[in-house]
């Protein structure tokens, strides 16, 4: 993340890479409470943030504490993330804030982007970390992390200035910003801190955190008052995260119009105007810098009902997810959109698919879905969740920055205390709330959107829904209902766009003579009874998709899973897989050609063989021989290739 390429290149040796940004939504709708029912944490804290929501939603989510993950790959990944969060001491997280405030601290400083001389210090320690532990409490009931969050809120509150300013860097950074001098995105970090405090209030009931977030909001309001709209437009050229969204959230909680007005000033006209007119003018822009701003536009629509901002968010989502994403659902190359819509030729880089972009696109997808209930939004959500998020963490909770798509690339993770990239923070949040988007409701009707082992408690309906599955290692999911009394409602099961032939549904062991088309819902409307069981068959098939703008390169998918060639670990060292300050392997691997398949027909899938469905093992026949293949999200510690070269193409287009 950065404001221009020149400022980046003084840090990144030989890589045309911008440092990534991350947007942190304090009440992102992936885990928002029902509009009509404020979350328990807000009730404890004495506020009702839902009261300012406009009637724009069709779909409602469930509070995080009503959905529990059961044993499976998502629960395992969540547990590794929580263990990493527990490993970070509060005193080390608070160190730079205390030093800045003139409070004695004897803790060892953190490294990487949290180093005492890094201009982005505080973004993780005072922001992402608080959001992650708040979500861990709401999702998993992790009391240890809630206590750590409460302790950190108190420590940072003691560092807050009388004027509301709170950061680990001096306030004069904003003088540099207003003068047009080089500075590394100070409002970006302020956004993370404010969002973290709001999450601690909304999800963990910490009243002091709301007071801190309000103080930050008051400081922002006063700072903005000194500048004209033209001056603000110039200031907004430097990345500011999703400060519009967090200020909208502060308005949602407090009802104070001054925060609403301040949020408007961060709605960047140079980005919003063409999007409102349905024009994709994103080429040349730093990718993840833009997505948080659009989440802010979505939040503005939800709080004001202004249709223009729904148009902005929906068109941005449509053009990016359809025209600017890889087969994985990820987007960006060297953190930028370097080409026009629908053209990703030449964009399979070592630093492609920044993880923060996928994280924020999932959050935006959740907003867009709630307005319409269109199941196709969850086709994208599922694809990105499995292929651009789930495989971005190792067994110890370390995260990726980039999800490299250059043939021969390997995954490069952070280190425990010497990295703290933006994607370290967004990953810590993501892996704390995997339970957030599995189930939705429309009135009394229930929707199942993801096939993840989990249990939903819906006390208003006296319903417990338990979903048991080993998906995607098995092509089915099983649902069982526990009801206090018989109830009539519609149970809507998402039928994915990737589904193969012979899909069917069974009710209490009997096959039903009904189904639905791919990319829609199968609706079962009846009076349900305690003990009812549903089994949904989800047959998966192989299919290939071309790289947008380059039909010579294709990715292979099995159901929702992107498959990758396993190219071995020869020459890979620890330093090439785990890095500190910068997410660049040392040394960088040399480019390799994409594997060339042994088929002249682009749509042919015969060159890929399923070796074991249960173990998700595959084998590809290439011009160089057979190659072992596995789901991309399961590959670690070896090189891989996602895109394959058509045999009929003489040149390497990767």
Question: How would you describe what is shown here?
Answer:
By secondary structure, this protein is of the alpha+beta class. It folds into three domains: 433 residues, Alpha/alpha barrel (Glycosyltransferase), CATH 1.50.10.20; 90 residues, Immunoglobulin-like (Sandwich); 102 residues, no CATH class. It contains 19 helices and 21 strands. The strands form four sheets. Strands 13, 14, 15, 17, 18, 19, 20 and 21 form an eight-stranded antiparallel β-sheet that branches. A seven-stranded antiparallel β-sheet has the order 1-5-6-7-12-9-10, with no helix packed on it. It has a four-stranded mixed β-sheet with strand order 3-4-8-11, with no helix packed on it. A hairpin with a 2-residue loop joins strand 13 and strand 14. It starts with a helix and ends in a 9-residue tail after the last strand. The N terminus is likely disordered.
Proper CATH architecture of the largest domain: Alpha/alpha barrel
Which CATH class of the largest domain applies here? Mainly Alpha
Q: What structural category characterises the helix and strand content?
A: alpha+beta
N/C terminus separation:
25 Å
The major β-sheet equals: 8 strands, antiparallel
Domain module tally: 3
**Number of DSSP E strands:** 21
Shape: globular
Taking Cα atoms only, what radius of gyration do you get, to the nearest Å? 24 Å
**Residue share in helices?**
25-40%
**Approximate strand percentage:** 15-25%
The overall pLDDT average reads 91
Number of helices: 19
CATH topology value of the largest domain: Glycosyltransferase
Flag low-confidence runs. 2-48
